[in-house]
Write a structure and sequence with these properties.
The chain has about 325 residues and is an alpha+beta fold. It contains eight helices and 15 strands. A hairpin with a 4-residue loop joins strand 14 and strand 15.
Length: about 325
C-alpha cells in the first residue's frame, strides 16, 4: 500500500527582481500560511534594503557612493561581505564582489542595457576602480573599508543568502519538509509530499551558439542541501554574432569568454553554493574543475560544443546528488 501523501502547500512572492517560492509539506505546522508568507516576505525585504544595487537607498548603494573611510554595517551585511571577500581571496580574485561599475558598464546593472559595447578605455577605468583586495573588514566593529570609488555588487551571493534566510524562517517555525527557490537557487529539507527525497532539475543549455532549444533538464536528488547555478544562457546580449554574458572576468573586465555554459554547486548553505557557482564559472572549463576537485566541492560543469553539451562532475557531486540524470 502506498503511503498517504503529506499535506502540501505552496507560498510565493516577489523579491530581488525575481520571485521566491516555498513548497512545504508539514502536518505539524503551527503557524497560519498567511502569517508565514508575511514573515518570509519581510525577511527578504530586509535583505533587499541592505544588499540590493537596484535600490538606490539600500545600504550597499549608500556604501558604494560613500567617501573614503570606515563604515559600520549590520551584522547581516557584514556576514555576507565577509564570505564574499574570503572567497575572493581563496580564488585569487577569480570571484570578485567589487565589480559594480563594470556590471553597470556592460549593461547588467541597475542602469539597464547598454546601447553599444563599452570602449576599452571605459573598461580599463572601471577595472581600475575595482578589486576585492582594496576593501577591508573590521570584525570587532562590524565595519567595512571603502577606499573611495569601490562599488560592491553582491548579486552573485545575495539570492543564495535569501534562500538561506527563508529556510531559517521555516526552521524557526518547526517546518521539517520544504523546498525553497529564489530565482532558480534551491534549498531542500526533509521529504517531498510523497515522503521521498526532493528531486529537482538542472537546466541543460542549448549547444552551439546557445540560440537553439535547451536539452531536457537533468534531474538530481537534493537531500538537506542547496544547489545554485551560474551560466551564460539567461542574462546575455549579442553583438555582431558574439555572445556577451553577465558573468565578468575580473582579470580583463570583459564578460567571461570560454566554453563553459553553466556550473552548478551543491552546498549546505545556498549563499556559498551561489557564490561558488559564479567563481567556478568565471574560472572556465579547465581551472574551474581543477579548483573544485582541489577543494572537494560538489560541482557539475556543462561545457558547450558545436553539436552538444558535455557534462563533467566531481566525485562529491555524485555522492550528494546521486547518479545525475538517473530516475
Amino acid at each position: 500500500m502506498a503511503p498517504i501523501p503529506l499535506p502540501y502547500k505552496t507560498l510565493q512572492g516577489p523579491t530581488m527582481g525575481t520571485t521566491w517560492t516555498v513548497k512545504l509539506c508539514d502536518p505539524g505546522r503551527a503557524i497560519a500560511l498567511e502569517t508565514l508568507e508575511a514573515v518570509i516576505q519581510a525577511a527578504l525585504e530586509r535583505i533587499t534594503r541592505q544588499m540590493s544595487n537596484w535600490d538606490p537607498s539600500s545600504f550597499i548603494s549608500l556604501l558604494n557612493r560613500a567617501e573614503r573611510g570606515w563604515y559600520e554595517v549590520s551584522d547581516e551585511l557584514f556576514h555576507v561581505l565577509k564570505h564574499a571577500l574570503d572567497l575572493a581571496r581563496d580564488t585569487a580574485g577569480a570571484y570578485d564582489p567589487t565589480l559594480g561599475k563594470l556590471v553597470d558598464l556592460w549593461g547588467f546593472g541597475p542602469s539597464g542595457p547598454c546601447g553599444s559595447l563599452p570602449g576599452a578605455g571605459d573598461i580599463a577605468a572601471a577595472l581600475a576602480q575595482a578589486g576585492w583586495n582594496h576593501a577591508g573588514l573590521n570584525q570587532q566593529h562590524l565595519a567595512v573599508w571603502q577606499p573611495g570609488g569601490l562599488s560592491f555588487d553582491l548579486s552573485s551571493i545575495a539570492k543564495g543568502y535569501g534562500v538561506d534566510q527563508i529556510a531559517a524562517v521555516l526552521d524557526t517555525h518547526k517546518i521539517e519538509h520544504y523546498l525553497v527557490e529564489v530565482g532558480g537557487e534551491l534549498k531542500a529539507r526533509g521529504s517531498n509530499e510523497h515522503r521521498k527525497p526532493w528531486r529537482v532539475s538542472i537546466e541543460i543549455p542549448a549547444s552551439g551558439d546557445g540560440s537553439g532549444s535547451p536539452s531536457p533538464a537533468l534531474p538530481i536528488v537534493l537531500v538537506d542541501a542547496s544547489v545554485a547555478t551560474s551560466g551564460d544562457y539567461r542574462r546575455y546580449f549579442k553583438h555582431d554574432g558574439r555572445r556577451y554574458a553577465h558573468t565578468l572576468d575580473p582579470a580583463t573586465g570583459y564578460p567571461a569568454a570560454h566554453a563553459l555554459a553553466s556550473v552548478s554547486v551543491l552546498h549546505e548553505q545556498c549563499m556559498m553554493a551561489d557564490a561558488l557557482a559564479t567563481a567556478l564559472f568565471s574560472m572556465g572549463p579547465d581551472h574551474g574543475p581543477q579548483y573544485a576537485r582541489s577543494r572537494r566541492i560538489p560541482a557539475l560543469f556543462m561545457v558547450r560544443h558545436p553539436d552538444d553539451i558535455a557534462l563533467e562532475w566531481t566525485d562529491e557531486f555524485t555522492a550528494l546528488a546521486g547518479n545525475p540524470g538517473k530516475p
